[in-house]
Design brief:
Blueprint lengths: L19 H7 L6 E5 L14 H15 L2 E2 L22 H16 L6 E5 L5 H15 L5 E3 L6 H8 L14 H8 L17 E2 L2 E4 L3 E4 L2 E4 L4 H4 L14 H22 L12
Parallel strand pairs: 1-2, 1-3, 3-4
Antiparallel strand pairs: 5-6, 6-7, 7-8
Helix pairs in contact: 2-8, 3-4, 6-8
Length: 277
């Protein structure tokens, strides 16, 4: 009996799992490389602080579905409004920009220009924007950023949460709580959810999220910390309405959306995006 041929090794999509020889072979095909970003921050009393774990899983699924490669996640982000809560790890703005630029340049220096950022923490985006604009000016390369938790439309929020709709979208609410119930249920502590009768004030005015206060029904920017807004880490939404089923739907939607975008990005030249009409 002839010896059976050795099975071909499974194709890898996580850069951390590749040998440098395997990566060198893969980049010959000019693949899209995903740069996942997250945060280590409180997410209310019921969810693990390492919310970057969710982005890491999503990036891996997108990489496999889109034939891309997911770089290791940067688990720390810019989240200064969570600094009063112990256990968070927040990078200074200049640190975050420098680290992200270093990550991008390590690929750009090898002429790997198909880079897509998957951002799993909304607070990172203003600094991401500054960095990718610098890359565009100095390198002539377009690096798009997909803000994962802001992909759901108002119609989808109504589909998921009925009349509560987009009000479900908030720190301490969805999408993080439901996605965590779906992806890391063993880490969830829904029994620790507490309720507050109202939210905090600053300069004698009601706080609005983590970015300002309300005066005459208009938001005025102010340096609100999570502890100015609430005592339980739930800035808005209602995590008691969250579920693993909703998290499954949100996760599938995000993965599908990102996969479609990455497949599109794989067909264009990221160095010729300037001035297109």
């Amino acid at each position: 009996m002839k010896e059976s041929q050795a099975a071909s090794p499974k194709k890898k999509h996580q850069l951390a799992e590749m040998t440098f020889v395997e990566f060198r072979e893969r980049i010959a095909g000019d693949p899209v490389i995903l740069i996942p970003l997250g945060s280590q921050e409180e997410q209310g009393p019921m969810a693990p602080m390492g919310d970057y774990m969710l982005t890491q899983v999503i990036a891996g699924r997108v990489a496999e579905a889109a034939e891309a490669i997911a770089a290791p996640i940067l688990p720390f982000g810019y989240a200064d409004y969570f600094r009063p809560v112990p256990g968070g790890i927040q990078l200074k703005p200049e640190t975050f920009r420098a680290v992200l630029m270093d990550i991008l340049e390590n690929f750009l220096d090898h002429d790997l220009n198909r880079l897509v950022i998957l951002n799993g923490h909304s607070g990172n985006y203003p600094l991401i924007d500054q960095t990718i604009r610098q890359v565009k000016r100095t390198r002539g390369v377009i690096v798009p950023c997909v803000n994962l938790w802001r992909l759901m439309t108002p119609a989808m929020w109504h589909e998921l949460h009925g009349d509560f709709g987009p009000a479900a979208f908030a720190h301490g609410g969805d999408p993080i709580t439901s996605v965590s119930l779906h992806l890391v249920p063993e880490l969830m502590r829904m029994d620790l959810i507490t309720r507050e009768e109202g939210k905090g004030k600053m300069i004698g005015l009601p706080t609005v999220g983590l970015a300002g206060v309300r005066f005459r029904d208009v938001e005025v920017a102010a340096p609100v910390d999570i502890t100015d807004r609430c005592t339980n880490g739930i800035a808005g939404g209602d995590p008691t309405r969250s579920s693993a089923e909703i998290g499954h739907q949100i996760t599938d939607y995000i993965v599908e959306y990102c996969t479609a975008f990455v497949r599109h990005f794989a067909t264009i030249d990221p160095t010729t995006g300037n001035g297109e009409f």
